[in-house]
Each structure stands twice: as structure tokens, then as C-alpha cells.
Specification:
binds 2-hydroxyethylsulfonic acid, 8 helices, alpha/beta, seven-stranded parallel β-sheet, binds NADPH dihydro-nicotinamide-adenine-dinucleotide phosphate, about 40% helix
Amino acid sequence: MKKIALVTGATSGIGMACATALAAASYRVIITGRNTAALDSLADRLAREPGPESVCKLVFDVCNLEACREAIGSLPADWQAVDVLVNNAGLALGLEPEYEGDPTDWYTMIDTNIKGVLNMTRIIVPGMIERGRGHVINMGSVAGDAAYAGGNVYCATKSAVKAITDGLRIDVAHTPLRVTLIKPGLVETNFSRVRFHGDNERADNVYKGIEPLTADDIADTVVYAAQAPAHVQIAEMLVLATHQANGSFIYREK
Ligand code: NDP
Ligand code: 8X3
């Protein structure tokens, strides 16, 4: 029987690439996000490929625990046994020094990147434990390894994702469940447009002078971790563009 993967933040970038790659790897995919039109168009595209029952969509905000519960509770019975949870939804907002940052931006990052991961984990993992199978793949970041200039709160949220992932791995070590943290570096998606509140010129500058990773590169790592043999737990993967050394050092061609 085909396995079921649920991807949060599947309406764009890495999440969309993960949903596409998992569908191509024969998973039945639950795509979730806030943007109904983007989910509809992804669902149409995926359904044309492996078969009409291979995709299911849910519209909800990961920050809202009740909305998460309601959405997961509304899944048809034959979609409820999620095998792979990809906690991908997340964002950065702003790159100001901490003493000049916008508290509204901070709280949105904390709610989405930390509470969103916890909400989905709390709802999906008990079923995985009951069934004796499952894999949680969290989208961390090189930003969680060390703070970089202006990264303050975003970096803190990704450090929290690492601690939450490591904690879950300990908590399920007595079960067959696996827990993975993927830590990408610079990936060209909508990420910087969102971070700079729609300033496209500033966003484009982030990727100048370096060939960044693509969302597909990260999706490949997710599929690799998901498809590793059952006794192999890919605990953590740091994936950087070739000319990026860490969160702070990027060699750019002039
Ligand atoms: P995108 O902006 O392209 O995609 C982010 C996705 O998250 C969108 O689908 C967005 O949906 C969704 N999302 C945001 N907030 C919520 C919410 N409250 N509820 C549900 N969905 C939400 O960026 P990326 O694909 O690059 O980012 C995906 C993940 O990868 C994030 O966790 C990010 O931190 C991480 N990451 C990104 C890197 C990069 O350089 N791009 C590097 C390292 C990690 P909507 O359109 O509704 O906002
Ligand atoms: C996204 C990568 O370096 O812009 O997490 O923070 S970075």
C-alpha cells in the first residue's frame, strides 16, 4: 500500500517541491497551506500524474491549533494514517538589528516556525506511535546553527526547531518512528520576498553572485531521508550552496 505524506506550506517553494517529489516517489500526498488557489493548482497538477486518489488538500493556518485539529480531523478515513509529516511551513520577517525589530514580525515567526511545528507534531505523532510507524521531517535552517547579523529572532526560531526535533527523537526512541532535521542554506524561493515584505529588488540581491540551492535540491534530501531503510534514521542534514560556508559567510562573484 502507498504511504501517505503530509506537507505543510505546500503552496510555495520548498513545500511545493517536497509535495511534488513525494508524489513522484509514489506517496499519496496531503498538501496543506493557507492559499486555496495555490493548493488547488498544485492538487490539479499532482492529480494528473500518479492517479486521482493520490492527492488531498487541506486549507489551514499552522499557527492555529484548533484549525489544525479541525483540518486533520476532517481527513477522510483512508487519508488519516499519515506516514511522513513534513513540517515545512515557515518564514522570516525582517533583517533589522534586534533593538529595532518589529515585535509583530517576531511573534509571527515564533507562532509559525515554533508553535506551527509543535501543533502539527502534537496532532499527528500520537497516531504514528499507535500504528508503530511514522517519520517526522522538520525544516530547520543553517540559521539555527548560529545567529547571523539581523537574523536574531528568525535564527532563534530555527534553533528552537532543532531542539524540538532533537527532543522528539529522544521521546520516540523506544518506537520505530524516525525524526529528521533538514537544515538548508540559501534556497531561492519566495522566502526573501516574504522576509523583505515584498521588496523584490532587495530579495533578488540575496541571490546575486552565488548559485543558490533550489527548492528541488531540498526536496531531494527529504525524499532521501523518507526512503532510507527502516533501520536508518537520517537525524540531521545541513545542505549548503557550494559557495556558502555557513549562515554568515557566502563567497559572491563580483
Ligand atoms: P516560501 O515563502 O516559498 O514558502 C513558505 C511556505 O510556508 C508557503 O507555502 C507559506 O504559505 C507557508 N506558510 C507560512 N506561514 C504559514 C502559516 N501560518 N500556516 C500555513 N502555512 C504557512 O519559503 P521557503 O519554501 O523557502 O520556506 C519553507 C521553509 O524552509 C521555511 O520553514 C523556511 O524557514 C525554511 N528555509 C528556507 C530557506 C531558504 O533560503 N529559502 C533556507 C532554510 C530554511 P503562504 O503562501 O500562505 O504564506
Ligand atoms: C533561510 C536561510 O540563511 O537566509 O533559513 O537564514 S538564511
